[in-house]
TrEMBL record:
It holds the Pfam family Glyoxalase. The lineage of its organism: Bacteria, Bacillati, Bacillota, Bacilli, Bacillales. This is Catechol 2,3-dioxygenase. Keywords: Metal-binding, Oxidoreductase. Signal peptide: none annotated. SUPFAM superfamilies: Glyoxalase/Bleomycin resistance protein/Dihydroxybiphenyl dioxygenase.
Length: 283
Protein backbone atom coordinates (compact mmCIF):
# COMPACT_ATOMS: atom_id res chain seq x y z
CA UNK A 1 0.00 0.00 0.00
CA UNK A 2 1.16 3.52 -0.78
CA UNK A 3 -0.49 5.55 1.96
CA UNK A 4 2.77 6.66 3.59
CA UNK A 5 4.63 8.10 0.64
CA UNK A 6 4.05 10.47 -2.27
CA UNK A 7 1.33 11.57 -3.08
CA UNK A 8 -0.03 11.22 0.48
CA UNK A 9 0.55 13.54 3.41
CA UNK A 10 1.26 11.48 6.52
CA UNK A 11 2.69 11.40 10.03
CA UNK A 12 6.28 10.15 10.32
CA UNK A 13 7.69 11.16 13.72
CA UNK A 14 6.51 11.81 17.27
CA UNK A 15 8.48 13.60 20.01
CA UNK A 16 7.37 12.79 23.55
CA UNK A 17 8.38 14.08 26.96
CA UNK A 18 9.18 11.65 29.76
CA UNK A 19 9.61 11.85 33.52
CA UNK A 20 12.73 9.67 33.44
CA UNK A 21 14.40 9.18 30.06
CA UNK A 22 16.41 6.13 31.15
CA UNK A 23 13.30 4.37 32.44
CA UNK A 24 11.51 5.17 29.18
CA UNK A 25 14.46 4.02 27.10
CA UNK A 26 14.44 0.64 28.83
CA UNK A 27 10.75 0.28 28.01
CA UNK A 28 11.05 1.34 24.39
CA UNK A 29 13.96 -1.00 23.77
CA UNK A 30 12.93 -4.10 25.70
CA UNK A 31 9.13 -3.95 25.46
CA UNK A 32 8.52 -2.20 22.13
CA UNK A 33 11.73 -3.22 20.35
CA UNK A 34 13.21 0.07 19.17
CA UNK A 35 16.89 0.65 18.49
CA UNK A 36 18.83 3.78 19.49
CA UNK A 37 19.66 6.10 16.62
CA UNK A 38 21.04 8.96 18.73
CA UNK A 39 21.46 9.50 22.47
CA UNK A 40 22.57 12.94 23.65
CA UNK A 41 22.10 13.83 27.29
CA UNK A 42 18.46 13.46 28.23
CA UNK A 43 17.19 13.04 24.68
CA UNK A 44 17.07 9.79 22.71
CA UNK A 45 16.05 9.28 19.08
CA UNK A 46 14.66 5.82 18.35
CA UNK A 47 14.51 3.88 15.10
CA UNK A 48 13.36 0.53 13.74
CA UNK A 49 15.69 0.31 10.73
CA UNK A 50 18.83 1.93 12.14
CA UNK A 51 18.53 5.10 10.05
CA UNK A 52 14.97 6.50 10.13
CA UNK A 53 13.88 8.38 13.28
CA UNK A 54 10.40 7.46 14.48
CA UNK A 55 10.13 8.42 18.15
CA UNK A 56 12.16 10.86 20.20
CA UNK A 57 12.08 10.73 24.00
CA UNK A 58 13.18 13.75 25.99
CA UNK A 59 13.33 14.52 29.70
CA UNK A 60 12.88 18.30 30.03
CA UNK A 61 13.99 20.43 32.94
CA UNK A 62 11.50 20.54 35.82
CA UNK A 63 9.35 17.93 34.11
CA UNK A 64 5.77 17.59 35.35
CA UNK A 65 3.79 14.38 35.66
CA UNK A 66 1.31 13.82 32.81
CA UNK A 67 -1.62 16.20 33.27
CA UNK A 68 -5.10 14.63 33.18
CA UNK A 69 -7.98 15.87 31.02
CA UNK A 70 -5.81 17.85 28.63
CA UNK A 71 -5.34 17.91 24.87
CA UNK A 72 -2.37 16.17 23.28
CA UNK A 73 -1.45 12.59 22.54
CA UNK A 74 -4.05 9.83 22.84
CA UNK A 75 -1.70 7.38 21.16
CA UNK A 76 0.82 7.09 18.39
CA UNK A 77 0.53 4.02 16.21
CA UNK A 78 3.34 1.84 14.89
CA UNK A 79 2.39 0.08 11.67
CA UNK A 80 4.08 -3.30 11.24
CA UNK A 81 4.67 -4.73 7.74
CA UNK A 82 2.94 -8.08 8.19
CA UNK A 83 0.29 -9.76 10.31
CA UNK A 84 2.94 -12.24 11.43
CA UNK A 85 4.95 -9.31 12.85
CA UNK A 86 1.96 -8.28 14.94
CA UNK A 87 1.59 -11.87 16.14
CA UNK A 88 5.23 -11.96 17.27
CA UNK A 89 4.84 -8.61 19.03
CA UNK A 90 1.76 -9.85 20.87
CA UNK A 91 3.50 -13.09 21.86
CA UNK A 92 6.43 -11.06 23.19
CA UNK A 93 4.16 -8.77 25.22
CA UNK A 94 2.36 -11.78 26.69
CA UNK A 95 5.69 -13.36 27.62
CA UNK A 96 6.95 -10.19 29.33
CA UNK A 97 3.74 -9.80 31.27
CA UNK A 98 3.58 -6.10 30.42
CA UNK A 99 -0.02 -4.90 30.88
CA UNK A 100 -2.05 -4.32 27.74
CA UNK A 101 -4.85 -1.77 27.58
CA UNK A 102 -6.71 -3.44 24.74
CA UNK A 103 -6.65 -5.65 21.67
CA UNK A 104 -9.07 -4.91 18.85
CA UNK A 105 -10.14 -5.91 15.37
CA UNK A 106 -11.00 -2.71 13.50
CA UNK A 107 -11.94 -4.52 10.26
CA UNK A 108 -9.33 -2.49 8.35
CA UNK A 109 -6.62 -3.46 10.82
CA UNK A 110 -5.78 -5.51 13.91
CA UNK A 111 -4.28 -3.69 16.87
CA UNK A 112 -2.94 -4.00 20.38
CA UNK A 113 -2.78 -1.12 22.83
CA UNK A 114 -0.55 -0.26 25.77
CA UNK A 115 1.06 2.74 27.43
CA UNK A 116 4.64 3.64 28.26
CA UNK A 117 5.70 4.17 31.92
CA UNK A 118 4.47 7.78 31.79
CA UNK A 119 1.06 6.94 30.38
CA UNK A 120 1.77 7.92 26.77
CA UNK A 121 -0.50 5.74 24.64
CA UNK A 122 0.87 3.37 22.00
CA UNK A 123 -0.88 1.29 19.35
CA UNK A 124 0.92 -1.50 17.51
CA UNK A 125 -1.01 -2.68 14.47
CA UNK A 126 -1.05 -4.36 11.09
CA UNK A 127 -3.37 -3.41 8.24
CA UNK A 128 -5.67 -5.86 6.56
CA UNK A 129 -5.39 -6.08 2.74
CA UNK A 130 -6.83 -3.03 1.00
CA UNK A 131 -9.28 -5.12 -1.05
CA UNK A 132 -11.03 -6.18 2.19
CA UNK A 133 -11.82 -2.61 3.29
CA UNK A 134 -15.48 -1.68 2.99
CA UNK A 135 -16.90 1.75 2.18
CA UNK A 136 -20.37 2.77 3.31
CA UNK A 137 -21.92 6.15 2.51
CA UNK A 138 -18.53 7.54 1.55
CA UNK A 139 -16.87 6.44 4.78
CA UNK A 140 -14.40 3.63 5.39
CA UNK A 141 -16.09 1.13 7.68
CA UNK A 142 -14.14 0.71 10.91
CA UNK A 143 -15.34 -1.25 13.90
CA UNK A 144 -13.99 -2.10 17.34
CA UNK A 145 -14.44 -5.80 17.96
CA UNK A 146 -12.60 -8.38 20.03
CA UNK A 147 -9.29 -9.36 18.51
CA UNK A 148 -9.06 -13.09 17.77
CA UNK A 149 -5.86 -13.53 19.76
CA UNK A 150 -5.70 -17.29 19.32
CA UNK A 151 -5.93 -17.00 15.54
CA UNK A 152 -3.41 -14.18 15.42
CA UNK A 153 -0.82 -16.03 17.51
CA UNK A 154 -0.85 -18.89 15.03
CA UNK A 155 0.84 -16.49 12.60
CA UNK A 156 4.10 -16.62 14.56
CA UNK A 157 4.75 -20.13 13.18
CA UNK A 158 7.07 -20.64 16.13
CA UNK A 159 9.39 -17.81 15.08
CA UNK A 160 10.72 -15.60 17.90
CA UNK A 161 10.19 -11.86 18.34
CA UNK A 162 13.30 -9.91 17.41
CA UNK A 163 12.34 -6.29 18.01
CA UNK A 164 10.53 -4.01 15.57
CA UNK A 165 10.83 -5.07 11.92
CA UNK A 166 12.98 -2.67 9.93
CA UNK A 167 10.03 -1.64 7.74
CA UNK A 168 7.99 -0.46 10.73
CA UNK A 169 6.63 3.04 10.17
CA UNK A 170 4.54 5.60 12.06
CA UNK A 171 1.13 4.55 10.76
CA UNK A 172 -0.99 7.26 12.34
CA UNK A 173 -1.48 9.45 15.37
CA UNK A 174 -4.58 9.89 17.53
CA UNK A 175 -5.05 13.19 19.32
CA UNK A 176 -7.08 14.60 22.17
CA UNK A 177 -8.59 17.86 20.92
CA UNK A 178 -10.76 20.48 22.57
CA UNK A 179 -13.19 21.05 19.70
CA UNK A 180 -13.81 18.57 16.88
CA UNK A 181 -15.14 21.08 14.36
CA UNK A 182 -12.25 23.50 14.84
CA UNK A 183 -9.81 20.60 14.57
CA UNK A 184 -11.49 19.34 11.39
CA UNK A 185 -11.35 22.81 9.82
CA UNK A 186 -7.67 23.10 10.64
CA UNK A 187 -6.61 19.70 9.33
CA UNK A 188 -8.99 19.48 6.36
CA UNK A 189 -9.38 23.06 5.13
CA UNK A 190 -5.83 23.96 6.12
CA UNK A 191 -3.66 20.88 5.70
CA UNK A 192 -5.62 19.06 3.02
CA UNK A 193 -6.89 15.99 4.88
CA UNK A 194 -10.27 14.37 4.23
CA UNK A 195 -12.76 12.92 6.71
CA UNK A 196 -13.00 9.16 6.25
CA UNK A 197 -14.99 8.17 9.34
CA UNK A 198 -16.94 9.78 12.16
CA UNK A 199 -17.50 8.06 15.49
CA UNK A 200 -20.61 9.82 16.64
CA UNK A 201 -19.94 13.35 17.82
CA UNK A 202 -16.85 12.48 19.83
CA UNK A 203 -14.24 11.30 17.31
CA UNK A 204 -13.28 11.95 13.70
CA UNK A 205 -10.78 10.11 11.52
CA UNK A 206 -9.02 11.83 8.62
CA UNK A 207 -6.50 10.89 5.97
CA UNK A 208 -5.10 11.61 2.54
CA UNK A 209 -5.07 9.22 -0.39
CA UNK A 210 -7.91 7.06 0.96
CA UNK A 211 -6.15 5.58 3.99
CA UNK A 212 -8.37 4.51 6.90
CA UNK A 213 -6.75 7.29 8.94
CA UNK A 214 -3.50 9.15 9.27
CA UNK A 215 -4.93 11.21 12.14
CA UNK A 216 -7.63 10.43 14.67
CA UNK A 217 -9.15 13.17 16.83
CA UNK A 218 -11.40 12.87 19.86
CA UNK A 219 -12.90 14.96 22.66
CA UNK A 220 -12.82 12.15 25.23
CA UNK A 221 -10.88 14.38 27.63
CA UNK A 222 -13.72 16.87 27.46
CA UNK A 223 -14.88 19.56 25.06
CA UNK A 224 -12.84 22.66 25.81
CA UNK A 225 -9.97 20.70 27.37
CA UNK A 226 -6.89 22.85 27.90
CA UNK A 227 -3.44 22.24 26.48
CA UNK A 228 -0.87 20.80 28.93
CA UNK A 229 2.10 22.77 30.22
CA UNK A 230 5.13 22.86 27.93
CA UNK A 231 7.19 20.78 30.40
CA UNK A 232 4.46 18.22 31.12
CA UNK A 233 4.87 14.56 30.22
CA UNK A 234 3.15 13.95 26.89
CA UNK A 235 3.71 14.96 23.29
CA UNK A 236 6.00 17.84 22.39
CA UNK A 237 5.30 17.66 18.64
CA UNK A 238 4.59 15.38 15.73
CA UNK A 239 5.63 15.81 12.11
CA UNK A 240 3.67 15.71 8.88
CA UNK A 241 5.39 14.90 5.60
CA UNK A 242 4.06 16.52 2.43
CA UNK A 243 4.75 15.00 -1.00
CA UNK A 244 6.67 18.05 -2.21
CA UNK A 245 7.49 21.69 -1.52
CA UNK A 246 4.56 22.90 -3.63
CA UNK A 247 2.06 20.90 -1.57
CA UNK A 248 3.53 22.18 1.68
CA UNK A 249 3.47 25.79 0.48
CA UNK A 250 -0.17 25.42 -0.51
CA UNK A 251 -0.99 24.09 2.95
CA UNK A 252 0.91 26.92 4.63
CA UNK A 253 -0.99 29.50 2.57
CA UNK A 254 -4.32 27.86 3.45
CA UNK A 255 -3.41 27.88 7.14
CA UNK A 256 -2.55 31.57 6.96
CA UNK A 257 -5.88 32.24 5.23
CA UNK A 258 -7.54 30.58 8.23
CA UNK A 259 -5.60 32.91 10.52
CA UNK A 260 -3.19 30.20 11.72
CA UNK A 261 0.40 31.15 12.48
CA UNK A 262 3.23 29.23 10.80
CA UNK A 263 6.74 29.96 12.03
CA UNK A 264 10.19 28.91 10.89
CA UNK A 265 12.66 27.75 13.53
CA UNK A 266 16.11 26.61 12.44
CA UNK A 267 14.83 25.91 8.95
CA UNK A 268 11.78 23.94 10.18
CA UNK A 269 8.21 25.12 9.61
CA UNK A 270 6.14 24.79 12.77
CA UNK A 271 2.48 25.36 13.49
CA UNK A 272 -0.06 24.23 16.07
CA UNK A 273 -3.66 23.15 15.81
CA UNK A 274 -6.52 24.91 17.66
CA UNK A 275 -6.00 22.54 20.62
CA UNK A 276 -2.34 23.45 21.04
CA UNK A 277 -0.83 20.33 19.43
CA UNK A 278 2.47 21.33 17.83
CA UNK A 279 3.22 20.12 14.30
CA UNK A 280 6.34 20.18 12.16
CA UNK A 281 5.58 20.56 8.46
CA UNK A 282 8.15 18.60 6.45
CA UNK A 283 8.81 17.50 2.88
Amino acid sequence: MTFHRDPSTFVNQVHILAKDVERSLLFYQEIIGFRILEHIGKKVVLTADGKTPLVTIEQPENVLTKEPRTTGLYHFALLLPQRSDLAKALSHLINTGYPLQGASDHRVSEAIYLADPDGNGIEIYADRPLHSWIKEDGQILMTTERLDIENLLQETKGEPWNGLPEHTIMGHIHLHVSDLQKAEDFYCKGLGFNVVNRYGEQATFISTGGYHHHIGMNTWNGVGAKAPAANSVGMKWFSLVFPNEKARNEAVNKLKTLGVSVQEEEGILITKDPSGNHIRLCV
